Every structure is written in C-alpha cells, then in structure tokens.
Amino acid sequence: MTGTKDDRRLQCCTHAGGGRTGGTAALARRTLMRMVGLLAMVLIAVIAGGSLSAAVHAATLPFDEGRTASATAHVDVDRARLNEAARAMTQLAQATPDASTPAAPATPATTTAPAATPTTTAPPATPTTPTTSPSTPPPPAASPPPKAPPAPDLSTPSGRLRAAIDLLKANNYGKTIKAIGLIATSGVDHAPVILKAMSRRRVYLNRKTGEIAYRDGKAHFAFMTGEPVSGRPKGARSVRVNNRVRNIIKRALGTLQLRAKDPAARLRAATSVFQTRDKALRSDLETLIAEESDPTIKARLSQARAAIILKHGGSTSAKLGAIETLRARADRPALVAINPALNDGEERVSQAAKAAIAAIEQRLTYIAYAQNVWYGLSLGSVLLLAAIGLAITFGVMGVINMAHGEMVMIGAYTTFVVQEGFRAYAPDLFDYSLLVALPTAFAMAGLVGIAIERGIIQFLYGRPLETLLATWGVSLILQQAVRTIFGPTNREVGNPSFMSGGFEFMGLAITYNRLWIIVFALVVFVSLLLLLRLTTLGLRMRAVTQNRRMAASTGIRTGYIDALTFGLGSGIAGIAGVALSQIDNVSPNLGQNYIVDSFLVVVFGGVGNLWGTLVSALTLGITNKVLEPMAGAVLAKIFILVLLILFIQKRPRGLFALKGRAVET
Fold it and tell me: Looking at the whole model, is its pTM more than 0.85?
C-alpha cells in the first residue's frame, strides 16, 4: 500500500462509514468548532497578559487527552490537523510582541507535521508581569497576617499565671514543671492551694479556650483570682501529673512555705526541711538565709542547710561548719543529723563529729534529768490537789475517809456532763466549759461529802476502824452508781484551746495542760491557806483541829464545823477531779489510782498541816519520776514506800507536826 499512514486510516474510515463525502463533511464541522474554541482560549490568554505559547499548550492538552477517550480512527486525523494549526498560531503569537516582554524571534515552521506524542508536552513559558487593562478592576490588596498575642509580663503575678496557663496547654510534663515554677514564684496567696490541687489532679483546663479552674474540697475556684466559680470549665480536663511532677510540686510547696509572710509558717517549713534534708532546696536555703530577718527562723534555716550538707556531701570546710552549727543546737535531731559524718573520709570531719556527739549526749543527759523533775512537779501538783482535801478532813476530824477518791471521780464526771451540755447547746463557748465545771464540781462533791458525814460518819466518831470500813463501803456504792449511770468505759473530756499543745523551753518539752494544772494547784493551795487564816470558818476549824474540847467549851459548834470541814475537803477533791480529767482517763476507777498516794502525802507531810502537804506532795512526785527511768515504775513505788516507812518510824508526826495540847497528848 502506498500513501501516508493518515491517508490509509482515512480510507479505512471512509469505507467503514458508508461514503467518503459524508465523513468529510462531519469532520470539517468538528474541526471548525474546535478551531473556534482554540482561538477563543488564545484571545483570553492574550487579554490576561499571559504567555501565548502556554495558552496554546493548555488549549491543545484536551486534544492530547482525547485519544484515550475516543476509540474511533477520526481522532488521529483530527489531532494531526489541529497540531498543525497550533504550530501556525504559535508562529503568529511570536510575531506579535507582548506588552510587557520583548518579542522572541519566530521559529520557522517545518514542512512536515509529525503526529504528536501523548507523553510529550511543551514546557510552560515563564510567567510575565501581568498588565492591567483599563476595563479590568485592580486585584484586592492582600490582608496582613494576624498579629501574635503579646507575651505575658513575667514581672507581675497575673503575667506569671498566664504564662503558666500557656505552658499547661502544651500537655507536656516538661512544660508543666516550668509552669509549676511560675506558679510558685507568682506571689499570689492561693498559689499553694493551686499546687496542692495540681498534685491531686484537681486543676481543670480547656486547652482550646484556655479556661482553667481548680478544686479545693468540693468547691471550684478561678485559677487567676482564687475566687469561687460555679464549676469546672466546659470541655476542660484535669492537668496530667506523674511522680516526677508531684515531687517538683512538693519542693515548690516547701519553698513557698519558707517564703510565707507568717513567721510561724516559715518556722514550721524550716523544721520540715531540717527533717527531710532535701538536696534540691540547698540553693534556696542559702538565698533564704541571707534574706531572713527573724533570728530564730534564720538559725533553723542554717541548721537545715547544715543537715543537708552532712547528708549529701560538700567541701571539708562546709562540713566542719555544719557540725558546729548542729552542735550548737544540741538536741536529739541534731545528733541524728551529725551521725553520717562519723564515717566521713576526712579525718578532721570524723573527729569533729565525734566531739560534737559526745557534747550533745552529755547535754541531753542533763536535759533528761531536768525533764524528769518537770514531770515530778506535774505529778506532785496532782497529788497536792488530791491530798489537800484529805489533809483537812483527816487533820480536823481524825477520820480515815476511804471514799475520798470517789469525790475526785465525781468531780471528773461532773466535768464530762458540763462539757456535753456545751457541745450540745453552745459549742462556740466550749473553751469556757472548765470555768463552769469548777464551781459545779465543787458544789456536787461538797454536797455528797456533807451527806456522807451527816448520814454515816457522825455516828462513828472515835471508832477509826468502823469509820474506815464504812467509808470503803461508800466508795464501792459510788463506783457502782457511776457504772450504772455512765457505763464502765472511759468518757472523753476535751481540753480547751488554751490547754492544748505545748512549747519547748531550753530543751524541755512543756505541755500547756500540765502547766495549767501546776498553776491551778498553787492557786487552790493559796486560796485554802487564806481561808484558814483570814476567815471565821478557818479560825474555828483550826481551833477544833488543835483542841476539840476546848473549842466546844467556848461555844463552837463542833458538829457543824465537822460537816463544813468534810464538805470543804470533798469539794476540793471534786476540783482535783476537774484537773485530772484533763490529763487522765475519766472512768469509775479514777479515784482509786490516787487514794493510796494521797494518804502517803498526808502522813509524810504531817496531819492537818497544809505546808507539809505541799512539800510532801512535790517531794514524792519528783522522787518517783526520777527513780522510774532507773528502776522502773513498780520498783520505784516500792522503794518510796520503804523509805516512807523508815521515815515514819523516826518521825511519826511527819515533816511538819501540828502543835497543841490535844495533839501532843
């Protein structure tokens, strides 16, 4: 076969289409329409100021892709002709200069028109600067990029809190730790509460909106101001923490307390650091020591720094200085803090530690003796309160009252009833309950004592054995009555606020309740002494004590004086019960624990002599507490009893014997 490939395809299409004339007309129409579309696209590209060759390429691209869309043989013929037309239009565009770029020399057209390869396309021309037509509106100006929000001012508390919120939004543990530092150094009053809430995962943050709140108890509060809010923000989740973050929070809280405005809070924080010896706080302590103005807090901070140095290491000079600092403190916690330095590699450090420990142990021995003396004074004041009423009744009436301990018990249970009334009807006035309990207990125990004297003891004067047995039976009856009314278990009696807690004085631990009992015992002693010396009742009581018959011969009603004396002694025992309720268990057996010691005090001091009672109570109390650490509680009691028996053999009337004809005879 002769002719080109396109002619052969055209002949095949003519035979298949049923005639050459009809196929040629249809082909001409399609070609004409495509040429019109091509010219329109070229004109649009020229108006827009673009490259003519790029427009022609864009216009011819659909023809290249049309090969895959049509399966007929007409497409190949159309493509060859259109490619030839495209080359002609390209030459025309090169001959026409563009408004913004110089005209390029025209490329001579080739005489042959090879078929276009579908995969080969003309490279796009370099875009040129578009020209603005008078009829085309200018393009809109580009809007400037949005400005970033200003960085928080870290010099203000609110700025630090806002910066912390920005860090918490990242939901990253490292940035959370940085946020903790900003919160701790913000200076706001509710910063400790925020950190505590964060350690418990009670800080809630919406990371999209930045809304944040924290929970303290059951209430929610604003992160920035600390004011109450209705609840957690919508869509907020708790800020994540792990053990590392919790440790950072713990250290931050310790630093916050060390910088607190309240001196008592700073002192507690310094004591806590001394106990924990956290290495991370060493640098903070050096800064705080330089800034602290209170000498007590400054000394405690220095001791905490010294303990950290000895535990975690430091230079030799730093260790020696730390040992001297702790040696000046000279208590048992200081002894524990110095112990690690005994095994130090430096010989000077270990020798200094040994010398400091020896000095501290010697001082602690002296403090232990002084502490035992203080405990003895406390016990002596209790024995004085329990025995002073017995000294009056035994001295004036010569009656061995075995029910005296139950008068103490009645006073203690009266205190319990009064406090229950305050708890039920006036809880805000609970601190005043003892002021009401004192006269009430005195009246109750005194009335019971007068009833016992008028009902039983007045018929047994001069018969000491029967009196002893009768009062012992009364004590059993009173104990069982209390068990029936209040039950056999211990009852709770609270301490008022002014009797709670304690303080340290020269290494001695002083508790407020025992200090108040010592003061109260001395007040009762002085009041009773003034009553006996300055009142008519006291004068008659002393007269009956010294010579009952002579007092009766002068017109004194000895029976009336006996009843009042027994009631006075029982009332003082009731007051002793009020004091004992603050340091001992309130139970039906309370009085039995003190009755024997009370008789020992009265006999040792001298029957009916108040000064003898005071001296003997304090002497027995201190001796007992000094012997207890060496021999134990039981052997100490036995030793004191043996000494007391030997003393009575030598002085039957006690330390201070009463003088008078009846007494001497």
Answer: no
